[in-house]
Specification:
Length: 146
């Protein structure tokens, strides 16, 4: 089954690939690897103060949808993706907040939902005292493609 068909079956509609917000490109291709710049969530606030873990996970899922939109823009089709290699997730959180992995699972779970075992990836889930524009989550990705 194609990834585009799988998205439709899952009821997932990807957003348009967001334009860069500063002096960078949304993605870089080198060899058979696609590096997608950090995608920010629409949700704003800090985990541990303004947002619950579940809200953070939804924000991370939104980042994942934007990552997929960028990958489709770069490759022409998500069917070219052969592996989700790595995600690096940043969570705007208080010093006491320690559930960054559960937040970034919102994106990780999406990748596995869409790509199956090929969506399983290496990952970092770290805290940040602030993120651009006050967003709750930012995630970048590396995809392998054919």
């Amino acid at each position: 089954m194609s990834i585009e068909t799988k998205l439709a079956d899952l009821g997932i509609t990807l957003p348009d690939a967001p334009a860069p917000a500063a002096n960078y490109v949304p993605f870089v291709i080198t060899g058979n690897l696609l590096f997608v710049s950090g995608q920010i969530s629409p949700a704003k606030g800090r985990l541990g103060a303004d947002l619950a873990v579940e809200e953070g996970a939804e924000a991370a899922r939104a980042c994942g949808l934007a990552l997929l939109a960028q990958a489709r823009a770069a490759l022409g089709s998500l069917d070219r993706v052969t592996r989700v290699v790595k995600l690096a997730g940043f969570v705007n959180s208080t010093p006491e907040f320690t559930d960054q992995p559960e937040v970034i699972n919102g994106c990780s779970n999406l990748m596995v939902e869409v790509f199956g075992d090929l969506g399983r990836h290496a990952r970092a889930a770290v805290s940040a005292p602030a993120l651009p524009r006050g967003v709750a989550v930012e995630i970048e990705a590396v995809f392998e493609f054919a």
